[in-house]
Hints:
The structure is a single chain. By secondary structure, the protein is of the alpha+beta class. The strands form six sheets. Strands 10-11-9-8-14-18-17-16 form an eight-stranded mixed sheet. Strand 16 (363-366) and strand 17 form a beta hairpin.
Amino acid sequence: MQxxxxxxxQEKKEGQEGLRQALRGKMAAPDVQxxxxxxxxxxxxxxxxxxxxRVKPTPEVTAKANEITKNSVxxxxxxxxxxxxxxxxxxxIGIDFGIGRYQPHAATEVLGNQYGDCKDKHxxxxxxxxxxxIRAYPALISTRHEIDPDVPSPAQFDxxxxxxxxxxxxxxxxxTPEVAPFAYLLSSLRGxxxxxxxxxxxxxxxxxxxxxxxxxxxxxxxxxxxxDTGTLEGKVERTLxxxxxxVLFRSAFRxxxxxxxxxxxxxxxxxxxxxxxxxxxxxxxxxxxxxxxKFGYTYTRKDYSDWSNRRISPPLPPITLPELGDDDKAxxxxxxxxxxxxxxxxxxxxxxKGYSAEVPRKVDLDLSFAEYHASCSVKDGILSxxxxxxxxRRELTAGDYESYKKFNKLVTDDANAYIQLxxxxxxxxxxxxxxxxxxxxxxxxxxxxxxxxxEARSDYPKDVPGEISSLQRxxxxxxxxxxxxxxxxxxxxxxxxxxxxVASYRKAIAVDPxxxxxxxxxxxxxxxxxxxxEAVPVWQVLAKVAPEDVQAQSYLGSALLSLKRYPEAVTALxxxxxxxxxxxxxxxxxxxxxxxxxxDDKALAAFHAAFGLSPAPVAYNDAAYSMAEAGxxxxxxxxxxxxAVHEEEELSSKLxxxxxxxxxxxxxxxxxxxxxxxxWVYFKQGxxxxxxxxxxxxxxxxxxxxxxxxLRQIYEKQHKPAAATKMRGFLAPAAANSxxxxxxxxxxxxxxxxxxxxxxxxxxxxVERFAKGTSSVEITTLLTWDPKTSQFKxxxxxxxxxxxxxxxSAQVISSxxxxxxxxxxxxxxxxxxGILGCYEYTGCSLVLFEPDLVxxxx
Length: 858
């Protein structure tokens, strides 16, 4: 007999399906099962016989039952009181060997022990209920598998829960989790067949409830303040009700001692995507299962989000949606959502004085399986964010796949979007902003079209679909209404309906081919969505329409350069440089275009023109990098790179701690970039040892993804597979084989692998314990290279904020060692900020911040 061989793709899909079912507790029953039992009734009577005598109430059990229910007014309150007692007051300890796997201890014995396994806890519950005249039956169930109803066997079960008959239905109870709300079953027990074993009728298979007995709801609220140095601090409050997370969090706070709650909350915060520090933790009683579980803490994060670029994401946890899989095809199985649930996330951020925000448009999605609503607003300096997602169905069918794919993308993109901050009353107009010009366009001469346009403005931002409808009506009434076409395009773009946005922009161009803003709206949108080929003709037409517009030529040149159409890029960038001779970026890009088109002499001339505009080391560095990337003029590139490194090292060596200014922070980040450029030039020349030395120094200092990629390539050329593999581990999977990188050449594929713990370990220096307990303080340091020890040491330092928290001795400070190096032994000085702290269980350490994320020395 020939066995059919499964492909690796089939095996992968089956493995994914197996994991999906395992998470639901619904794995398929084993293919082969043996049993000596003839029926489920026989299995039930066998188990009933094992527990029959042990469940009978004794005087001790009866006395305890009467004590527990003395204040109960009816049967329902008696059941709740006894459930709460057995659930919370008796620890679960599994017993899974010999006859103890199936036969419970006597109720009296469990009562005295104050612990037991699932069988024991059911036995005590049933005995206490029986003592006050309430029947309760055992129900055998599997937490992992669907049972095979054709094979009656106790081996199919691994858990015992309780059933209280109530008229024609059952009340299902599980005391094992200790802190589960009344009548709550974990997801792995829902919608499954269980063997219910009454003592007054034949045992029978029955199906557990599909959903939680109460509405599943999670809430999160953060009330915070953002400082003008980028530190976010405030209070976080979370509430969980009616889902497995409630039981999980209750159990965690129940079993972790109160002194360790801060560490627990820190881990929960990290798991929710927050990398800052947690303190002042509070929580409700885990045993009070009749009310939602609440906990809160104070949260502090330095350099919050993308503060360096003056944009932030709302301080909200991510919204987790089921994954779509690796390909674009609908999965062969249903997509499991779980029980219907609502998640409501809100935050308030008090912005720094004088700041406001460009809030994103409101999102409202309402489908048959889920709905999502998101909004932001700014009032009185407070940025408020609100996100709410409601899961309406347990599962999605294959027919829902396309709708769910779009829903998933819209929700994910909205949740991952940044909010741009700015000073003043409205966003600044800059070289790349064209939106301001849209609002300067004239009104419609058609009164009805203008009225529809004004109606759209009144809808903004409360009703985006209504806004679209009004604008569509406006352009129907006046097809030449350019401002309405462009506004409609902007709305489509921010709703990620790119095709509709592009169509609207093209309509505006067709109406008025002489309006520059329409071309810019279309060109920027195409380039932002990786449609550079389509953007080129747009910029070309704009260059003809507005020959004096420097943006038309510079962005045309940039697009052509990225497409490696070097001769055409030269023409456009020459025009841009002529229109604005003071534009440093245009001169440097022009040099790169000349290199690509084989005009090395002109490239040198363009770079020299750039040096004339700015003789600073950064101009020499950028020119050297362009030459290295092109693999041309490498001796000149080496001279430029060495010059940039030498001058920057000399500038850094003159830093004095008492005279530090915020701009001095840039010298540390520049050193890292310049060392990398010099190392990359050496690599292109084949000087691999020198290349490794400089790129490694840059990597240790910067932890930049491009530098990691450079080092990976260097190690491969040196035939150091272990080192190359290690560097590949620092890169996100999609970036591991990328070879394009560098300043001015962004490659979206190159990102660091944030899951690699070594990234943060590189910036951690262990310190001998100098304080008891847990305390930390942020510090600014000036590190100096010591040629005698070939190590960096702290030349001087200062605490930021509460200077009384920690006071290490000079000996402790001088003993700190850093994972940094000076590649050529130059006496460089580095300005670094970090957290110096001592912790009860992990000792003392200094954790440095990444140089390019620090914006102030104070």
